[in-house]
Amino acid sequence: MSAPPEVRRETAVWHEAYQSDVLARRRRSSHARKLRRAGLLSMTRESRILDVCCGEGEMLEFLAREGYSSLVGLDLPAAPGKAEEAKGRRWHYASASATAFPFRAECFDCILCAHSLHHLGGLGNIEALLKEAYHSLKPGGRFIMIDHIDAPLVRLAFAVLFSPLAGLTQFTRMFRQQHLEEKDFLYDYLDHWPGLEALMRKSPFRNFKLEKKLFFFYWTGTK
Ligand SMILES: C[S@@+](CC[C@H](N)C(=O)[O-])C[C@H]1O[C@@H](n2cnc3c(N)ncnc32)[C@H](O)[C@@H]1O
Asked: Is 123 part of any domain?
């Protein structure tokens, strides 16, 4: 039997930057646009939706405000603070790895994984996520992934972010702090982009659609 994939975890410095008000505000302001573009808001309000690598659950909170009521978020046990606080939360929290779901087969109408593939630590773990998502989706269910594409503009944006220019505003300072903690695995992810595209194409999902925008791709596949 092969060893289970190794799971990497974010540092305390990463969590501090990620949870800062200035970055959280910016993220929240883009959720509606991204989820609409990914087609998620066309799902009926009764849909059972899983957000894999949900972080603070900001996308789930947005979906709850949109009228969705069967919401589950999954993130690593080490993700501190808010994700594990149940107070006032309108979604269930599952503490597990994206590479080994604690769910039975065919129980979700839609599974979302946003801004997190590059955190998973390599193509082997992304392949494990694709398998888990396929297993846990109902027939006809949708898997949606959003993350960076590899493109010259994306590389340029990160080069600027890692330069002294990023010291100019509070937002770019915090964004740089977060991304300095991601630097190694982020570039490794970008270097493996062709392999990721190949994985998406050979996955068992049908009717898949890959839309590339300036910084991000939107991928949807149907079980
Ligand atoms: C950039 S955040 C994205 C959060 C949220 N999806 C969003 O779009 O705002 C990446 C998240 O991936 C989580 N993560 C990293 N590796 C993971 C794994 N193996 N299993 C589950 N979550 C993981 C981290 O704890 C973190 O919360």
From this structure: yes
